Amino acid sequence: MINTSLRILLIEDQKTDVVLIKRQLKKLVRDPKVKVAEDLQGCRSHLVNFGPDVVISDYNLPTCNGLEILELTKSIDPDVPFIFLTGTINDEELAANTILAGATGYILKKHIHNLEEKLKPLLKKVAFNMVAREDVREKVRQNKIAVNQIYNYLDNLNADNSEQLKNISKIKDTIGDFKMDEEDEEE
């Protein structure tokens, strides 16, 4: 058993698989903190606000694919380990492409009942790297979360600003029309 508590982001759309994976993770990791998402938006939210130690993702999702999830993950936190747990990677070329794209590894869902055995070496490596830098781990996580939230806020602020600028322009146009009407009435 891995004694270091891990924060795990699980990207999975099948509820039964979520239950099975969580059960296997509890056998493998003491007190795992698991958040689940099934699309890019949920993934982004958890990456920004949860700051996972590792991401485990299905490859084939209803609204996106695993490479899109991997790309989003790496854009927010390039250092987070990323593991595919999927039933769709039976093509060696696709499996190689996932690794080349930055995935730490992949496990086929046909091994889900002995996931503990397949996942153990990958998670041990994650835990080992975390323990080696335990003193700064939580500070780094909190800083990443804060920075990601600031970026998210700024993105929303930029969207709001453009909307506000449009509204200000409309108000100015309306005021200009109103002034013209007043000037016409005075003549």
TrEMBL record:
Residues 7-124 form the Response regulatory domain. It comes from the Bacteria. The modification 4-aspartylphosphate is found at D58. SMART domains: REC. Pfam families: Response_reg (PF00072). Keywords: Phosphoprotein. The keyword Phosphoprotein applies. InterPro entries: Bact_response_regulator (IPR050595), CheY-like_superfamily (IPR011006), Sig_transdc_resp-reg_receiver (IPR001789). PROSITE patterns: RESPONSE_REGULATORY. The keyword Phosphoprotein applies. PANTHER family: RESPONSE REGULATORY DOMAIN-CONTAINING PROTEIN (PTHR44591:SF3), STRESS RESPONSE REGULATOR PROTEIN 1 (PTHR44591). This is Response regulator. It comes from Salegentibacter chungangensis.
